[in-house]
From TrEMBL:
The keyword Ribonucleoprotein does not apply. InterPro entries: AcoX-like (IPR039065), AcoX_kinase (IPR011391), ATP-NAD_kinase_N (IPR017438), NAD/diacylglycerol_kinase_sf (IPR016064), NADK (IPR002504). GO terms for molecular function: ATP binding; NAD binding; NAD+ kinase activity. It comes from the Bacteria. This is ATP-NAD kinase. It comes from Pseudomonas putida. GO terms for biological process: NADP+ biosynthetic process.
Amino acid sequence: MPQPAITVGIIANPASGRDLRRLTANAGLYSSTDKASAIQRLLAAFGATGVTKVLLPSDMTGIAAAVLKASEGPLARDQHWPPLQILELPLTQTVSDTRLATRQMVEHGVVLIAVLGGDGTHKAVAAEAGDTPLLTLSTGTNNAFPELREATSAGLAGGLVACGRIPASIALRRNKRLLVEVAQQAVREWALVEVAVSPQRFIGARALSRSEDISEVFACFAEPHAIGLSALCGLWCPVSRQATHGAWVRLNPGAEHALIAPLAPGLLHGCGVTASGTLPPGVPHRLSLAAGTLALDGEREIEFAEGDTPTVTLDLHGPLSVDVEAVLAHAARHHLLAVAHGHRLHPATLC
């Protein structure tokens, strides 16, 4: 009886790493060529660990086409890349493409989704993935949720997890998230890293990169080395990914103390801090402003006015992600990447 295919999905946001902060700050560019190359490194690692099928959505920037062409070449044959299936989507070049690709992958029964993008891309995938684990790779601007790592080692970890060779208790991490609700507008949205409150009344260019445009930040986790709005908490009242609480800071230009924080790559602002505290799970937190906008994971999405009562609530039941370091440490302790004589990757076989 044939074994069921071990199917993994890969989603690379063509727009990640290409937003307005290339102009307003000194953020780098992560091109479509870079993303196609990262996917090819993932495929090599997936093939080495036993993944038997990979799904990749179509796009308008040539990422899928470049990967498909490479998959038919000699390097792919030598490295035994798993067969690649392109999901042909009705593309809109909006976040809807990411959401649709995720839904289709879940329907196809993928056991893992590798995501190449920033915080916004991961938020969109998490909204549709349910409990399908995410292998997170950073290719965006302000990346706090996906950690920066090389695609080859991440792919080895993802492949071991997909093939069931690592206990879930070691391999997977349950992430926190923030629930944003505006009852008067019937709004209910999630953020994976932080929610920022701005006095700006309109969404506009979406990204927030000036200290005077931020009055409050709520964070699931906030690491001192972070870049972006969560750095305001990370450098004032840090909280780890594993902690069962979050953090918040309140800002005002007239505050006695100003915190120098990297709001974007190369963009440092002094931000006046007037108050801070912890964010316990399950407790709705009201805002200090009567009107303005809410930025979820770095981009303004929600406008609220007098009479609205937005709340932010920490939730401990966010998406599952692969703990790459823990997986590879377990693999090293148990020699899970060792292969016997006769294996296609054994040096004697390659001679």
